[in-house]
Every structure is written in structure tokens, then in C-alpha cells.
Amino acid sequence: MFHGKKIVVVMPAYNAARTLERTVREIPMDLVDDVVVTDDASSDETVDVAHRLGLRTLVHDRNRGYGANQKTCYTEALRLGADVTVMLHPDYQYTPKLLPAMISMLSDGPFDAVLGSRVLGGRALRGGMPRYKYVANRGLTALQNLLCDAKLSEYHTGYRAFNRRVLESLPLLENSDDFVFDNQMLAQALVAGFEIGELSCPAAYFEEASSINFRRSVRYGLGVLATSVQAFVHRKGLARIKLFDLGGRRLDPGGAPEAPAHGRALAPR
Predict the structure, then answer these.
(1) pLDDT confidence of residue 6
(2) Considering the chain, what percentage of its residues have pLDDT values greater than 90?
(3) Distance of CA 116 to the CA centre of its chain
(4) pLDDT reported for residue 266
(5) Parallel, antiparallel, or unpaired for β 56-59 and 196-200?
(6) What is the pLDDT of residue 218?
(7) How far apart are CA 37 and CA 77, in angstroms?
(8) CB 231 within 8 A of CB 244
(9) Which of 1, 13, 60, 78 has the fewest CB atoms in 10 Å of its CB?
(10) What is the pTM of this model?
């Protein structure tokens, strides 16, 4: 608990056996009530490591995609009664040491969502981000800010936290099961009028850190552009886009988990 708020960290995992324990060891457990690992049918020992660490673990019966993995994460967080949910990648690309700041910005501050930005403070290239990805990030972000009427420093970080109202309100089941889910979710939050804060976040690029190849990066970029244009069209009232209709399909934490749970829950602290 943090100031009376239940905090859940969700970790969408795929082949993260070599980095999961290192990531979990740096989570400030005095602030966190539950850690949830959702494994997207990894081919390595990710699930075994999660079990050994005693983490609440959900396992997909097949590889469903990064977006589908997040849907499982957030559904479980809501089911557990989370007031604040932080998505932390288990590949150690983002430091867990920023969790107290992110949690505080949601629990005590004016924000509905918080992003860990690799661009604020000029840390992206120093952390090893490939230059072509940095240039694409900056270009896409500028265009997205224009189309979404926002001023974020980047839309493409995987380190993000949300209050319960965001996860309950957005039609997340309308989103892609692939990587563009991240951007669709942010665009939905902006169109819905939620307040998004940012803090500077170092990011590390190394062999074990997950990354998409150039071909998938191009497909992701095209998906980002399409999402931003749709957000603009919906926001200006030029057309009604289902992706941004708050009456669309939302997460359902009332049913049974989509995947079987294993391990044990961490004791509340």
C-alpha cells in the first residue's frame, strides 16, 4: 500500500528468463502489494523463474502478442483491486528504481497516467538506443503531438503507470494485440481527457533486452501514424472512430483469469 492505495506491478513477459529475477529484485516491495507476471507462451524458462520467485503468474496457452499480453496484465490488476498499476518490462530495460516516483505522481499528484520518458534529459542515445530508432521516435512524437493536441516528449516508452479509472474507462479490448497497442492506449487516454505526466527515465539496450527488428518497427510506425490520424479525425468530430468510443469493449475483471494462475501472491506490505 502507498498512502492507502493498492499498488500492483504487472510484467508482460516473453522469453525473459535471464533478466526477470534481476528486475524483480529491484522492485521496492515495501510499496507494492502484488507483482503479476503474464507469460506469452515463452520458449525459455520464464515461467519456472517466476514460480521460483513466488510471483503471481498467468500463462498464455499460445503466443498472442504484446498487446494481448497487456490486456491480460491489466485485467488481472483490476481483478486484484489495484488503485495504481505500473507496467514494468521484465527485461531490465527500464529501472525499477523509478517506481516510487511514478506511484507518487499517481497517488498524490494530479495525473491519471505517468510515462517513463527516455527522451527527457537526453538519455536515449546514451543508453544505447539505435540512432534510427531515436530519429523515428522524435519524428513520430512530433507528429503525434500535433494530431493529438498534446506535448509529450515521447509516446513509445514501455514504462508506464495508470490509475484504476483509466483502465476501467478505456475500450482497451478494441485495441490491437500487437505492439501498436501501446500507442492506441495513449491516444485513447489523450482523447478521453486524462492527464498524463512524464519523468526522465534511463533505458538500457543490451543483448537480453527485448526489441523489435527493423521490419516490425516499420509496421509499428505505420500503425502509430494510422492511430494518430484516427485520433485527430475523432477529436475534431469528422467521423466517429470505434477505437475512441468510450462505449466500446472494456476489460472485464469480473470473470475468471484468461490464463491459469500459478505460484503465490506476494504478501501485502
Answers:
(1) 98
(2) 78
(3) 10
(4) 37
(5) unpaired
(6) 87
(7) 11
(8) yes
(9) 1
(10) 0.91
Q: Please give the full DSSP string across 65-98, using - where no structure is assigned.
A: -HHHHHHHHHHHHHHTT-SEEEE--TTSSB-GGG
If DSSP states are collapsed to H, E and C, what string results for 255-267?
CCCCCCEECCCCC
Identify whether the C-beta of residue 267 lies closer than 8 Å to the C-beta of residue 1: no
Nearest to residue 194, comparing CAs of 166, 153, 173? 166
pLDDT mean over 183-201: 97
CATH pick for 7-245 out of 3.90.550.10, 3.40.630.30, 3.20.20.150, 3.40.720.10: 3.90.550.10
Distance CA 51, CA 54 (A): 5
Closest CA to 38 of 46, 30, 29: 46
Quote the DSSP letter at residue 268.
Answer: P
Which grid coordinates belong to 47? 515461467
The cell numbers describing 227, all together, are 492511430
CA dihedral 60, 187, 196, 127 (to 10 degrees): 70
Q: pLDDT averaged over the chain? A: 91
Q: Is residue 171 helix, strand or coil?
A: coil
DSSP letter (8 states) at residue 44: S
Reading the block at residue 10, the C-alpha cell is 504487472
d(CA 198, CA 33): 23
- Residue 258's pLDDT band (cuts 50, 70, 90): low
Which among 186, 183, 265 is positioned nearest to 222, based on CA atoms? 183
